[in-house]
Records
---
Amino acid sequence: MSNLLIIEDDVMLNQGIAFNFQMDGFNITSAFTLEEAREKLDKENIDIIILDCNLPDGSGFDFCKNIRQKYTTPIVFLTACDTELDIITGLRIGADDYITKPFSINVLRERVLTVLRRCGKNSISSNIIKEGEFKIDLDKITVQKNGESIVLAPTEYKLLKKLILSKGEILTRQVLLEELWENEEYVEEHALTVNINRLRNKIEDNPSKPRYIKTVYGIGYAWTGEKY
C-alpha cells in the first residue's frame, strides 16, 4: 500500500483526488501549503507526491528543487501552468511526470501508478520509516530521534521497528516473543520485559512515564507515538 502526499491548496480538488486514490488502496496525506507539506514529508513515510505549482506560500517549482536535494521521492506535477516552458522546467528540475489542468482523474491515476512501477524500490522512502521524531533507515539499520543517532542492540532495533510498523495495534507478548526470537526453541518471557525497558531507556525522554510505548496490562504493548 503506497503513501501519497497531495500538495494542492484547492480544498475540494485535494479531497476529490484523495477520495479517488483511497478507493485504489492508497494511504493519503494532504497538504494545502508548502510549509505544511515540508512538515509532513519530514515526519511521514511518503512514496509519491502530487504537487501543484502555485501554492499560497510559494512556488511548487522551488519546492521540487528543494526536495531533490534531500529525497528521491517521485513527484508528479498537477497544475494549471501549461506552457511548454512550464512543462520542460518541471521535468528538468526533477519531476517524474507533469500533468496539466483540466485533467482526467483516470489518466492521473494511471500516470501515478506508472511512476510508482518505474521507480520500484529506488524511492528512498521505501527504505526509510518515519514516525514522528524517529527515522529508521532499513538499509543502514540505524535509528535517529530528532536527527540524533540512537544506538540499539539488534533485538531492540527489531522491537522498535515492529512496534512502529504496527502503530495503533496492540501486540501481545506472545506475538512479540515469536517475532523477536523466532528461531529460539525457548525464550524466557521476562526477556521481552527487559528489552522493552532497555528500549524505553534509550528512546523515551522520561522512561518512567513513557510517551511512545504503551503497556496494555495483561496483554502486551502498543506504539502510540504520543502521550496517552
---
Amino acid sequence: MAGPLVLVLLDRTERLRKGPDDRKLKERELLEALAELGEITPAAAAMKTSLTVDEAQKMLGDLAGKGHLKPRAEEGGVVYSLRGRDRHEPPQAGRPPQALDEPLSERELEVLNLLALGRTNSEVARELFISLGTVKSHTGNIYRKLGAKNRAEALARARALNLIP
C-alpha cells in the first residue's frame, strides 16, 4: 500500500523541483520547433529541443487530442503538423454540426479523440484521470451513438462526420 503513495510523493517532489513553468517552457520550445519545421515527429522534436522522445510524444499527443495539432500516420510513426490557416486548412471555429440522433458529449469527444490517436482504454483513463470502467462506459456510449460495433467502425464513422481528424 505504501508503494503507490511513495510514487505519488516522488512525482510531486519532481514536479515541484522542476518548477511550475517547466512544462510551459518545454511546450513553447516544442511549438517553436514545430513552427520552424512545419511538421514534426517525436524523435525530431527530441533532437531539436531539450525534450526526451517520450516527453515529446506525450506533449504532441496531448496537443493533438485537444485539436491543436493534426496527427498523420506514416511508416514508422506519427507526424504532427499545425492546424489552421497557416497549414491551408479551413479555420475551425467550433465543431461541425453532428448528424446524430443523440450528439456526443464533450467528454465522449475527448475519449474519441484519444482513441483516434491510438490510445488504449488504460492510456485514456490515465490521461483523463478517470477509471477504466468510466472509459469503457464512454466508449460504449460512443459506439451506440455512432451505430458502430467496434473501435474501427466508430472511428471511421466519426471521421465521416468530421468529429475527429
